Amino acid sequence: MSKQDEVSQKIIDKSLRLFNTNGIHTTSIQDIMNETGLPKGAIYRRFKNKDEIVLASYAKAGLIIDSFMRESIENKNTVTEKVMAISNIYLDAVDNPPIEGGCPMLNTAIESDSNFPELKTMMAEAFQQMILFVESLLREGIENGEYTTEMEPRSLASHLLSSMEGAIMTSRLSLSNEYVEHTIKYTERLLATYTK
C-alpha cells in the first residue's frame, strides 16, 4: 500500500468512527484533523469535501459488515445455523457492536434522509444486498430440503433483517441487549416453523 493509500485509509477509518459515534452532521473537518493528526491540506488532497469522506467511510463500513456476515457462517452446517450466526453478530449491540457506534445503516437512516441522497442510496443498496444474501441462504435451505417450500425467502429475509435493525436500535437506546436477544430467540423459533 502506498503512502497516499495509507493516509487515505487512515482518514476513512478514523472518520468512520467519528461519523458512526458522533453523527455525520456533528463531525467537522476539524474533528477529522484532530482524530487523524493530519493537516487540512493532507485531507483535501485526497478528498474533495466531507461528503466524499462520508461516502468512502460508509463504503468501508459495508465491507466490514459483509465480512462479519461471511465469517460468521463459516463452518456452519445448516442454513438455520448460518442465519443464527448472522443474527448473533449484534448480540452485544450495546457494548461491542462490529463497528464502534452501532449499526452504520441504522445510524445513517435518519441523517441521510433528504439532506444526503447519495448516502441514502448507498445505504439502501447495502440493505438490499444484505437481504439478498440472507435470501440466498434461505433458498439454499429450501433446495437442500432443510425448509419447506411454504417459506417465502425474500419476504422472510426482509422481515428478519428489519426486525434485527429495530432490535439493535431499541437495545442501543435502552442500553440493554435484551431486545436483540428476544429477536434472536424468535428468529430461531420462526425458522423452526419451516424446518422439515
Q: Per the principal axes of the C-alpha atoms, what is the gross shape?
A: elongated
> Low-confidence parts lasting 5 or more residues at pLDDT below 50?
none
CATH homologous superfamily (4th level) name of one domain: Tetracycline Repressor, domain 2
- Give a quick account of the main beta sheet: strands, pairing sense, barrel closure: none
- Count of helix runs: 9
- Strand count: 0
Q: What's the helix-strand series?
A: HHHHHHHHH
| CATH fold category name of one domain | Tetracycline Repressor, domain 2
Average pLDDT confidence is 93
Question: C-alpha Rg, in Å?
Answer: 19 Å
Q: What proportion strand?
A: under 5%
Structural class: mainly alpha
Amino-to-carboxy terminus distance:
50 Å
The CATH class designation of one domain is: Mainly Alpha
Residue share in helices?
over 70%
**What is the second-level CATH architecture of one domain?**
Orthogonal Bundle
GO molecular function: DNA binding
Keywords: DNA-binding, Transcription, Transcription regulation
Organism: Halobacillus litoralis
Protein name: TetR family transcriptional regulator
